[in-house]
Amino acid sequence: MSDSSGKSDTKEIVDEHRPLTSEETFRVVSESGQEELRRPAFSLMWSGLAAGLALGFSVVTEAVMIGHLPKDAAWTPLVADMGYTVGFVLVVLGRLQLFTENTITPVLSICKHPTRSNFAALGRNWSIVLSANLAGAFLFAAFAMLTPAISPEAKTGILELGRHVAHDGFMVTVVKGIGAGFLIAALVWVLANTESSKFFVVFVVTYVIALCGFAHVIAGTMEISALILAGQLGISAAIFGFIVPALIGNIIGGTVLFGFISYAQVSREL
Question: Of 139, 51, 44, which Cα lies nearest the Cα of 90?
Fold first, then answer.
């Protein structure tokens, strides 16, 4: 009897400390997606707005760090890009609604249950969260550029960051958006299997996005909005030169590539 009890206790300890299998990770993420699809529109809107505002701190922190580092040093971008992670840490660990996270969480749920009502719920989720994220990013840009909240040097840094993403061209931005979308989706997948090192995981993944210059539609919108407010970029050029191609790339990277691949690897088990 005691031997059986000991084996049972040992198994529980092993199960508690072993990593989740791919199937278990899929179930965790897809169940989270089901919860997101059922959330009230009011909650999605305010959470998405908060996420757009919070992500603005990624741009501001990076711009401030650039202003305090040597202009011509080869290592300056390596240090300044660490600032880009700040907003993502706030959003991800704060469980706020970020559109690029939603390119995988509710999508995996739909892969498992591809019903008409679920597709309608996904469209509702995406439209509300994306609109709220973009509005939050624009509001933060207005706060940063039109008030004395940050220094003139930091404002100059924000505009410089915006110029880097504004003139890449449609196809280049789409491709760069694929990289960011894939990495954010991978971040969601990894976090489902992570307990004690979530900050480190968020930091590393979003730091890579900054280092590679990948296009994230929400963070980039804050930079682009700053250019609009400074009169250095037209609204049409901002929408069709960055926001639309970055959005397309993020969806391709997060949903088409990582999301469908994640489902394919466990579809037989499911």
Answer: 51
Q: How far apart are CA 201 and CA 247, in angstroms?
A: 23
Q: Quick one: DSSP state of residue 148? A: T
Can you tell me the distance from the alpha carbon of 263 to that of 270, in angstroms, rounded to the nearest whole number? 9
62-82 residue pLDDT tens: 999 998 899 888 899 999 999
Cα dihedral 40/42/44/46 (nearest 10): -160
Q: How far apart (Å, rounded) are the C-alpha atoms in residues 203 and 48? A: 21
Question: What gap in Å lies between CA 222 and CA 224, rounded to an integer?
Answer: 6
Structure-block tokens of residue 217? 């539609």
Predicted TM-score of the model (pTM): 0.88
Domain ranges of the chain: 21-266
CATH superfamily of the domain spanning 21-266: Glycerol uptake facilitator protein. (1.20.1080.10)
H or E, element range at 192: none
* Residue pLDDT, tens place only, 90-132: 999 999 999 998 888 888 888 877 888 889 999 999 999 999 9
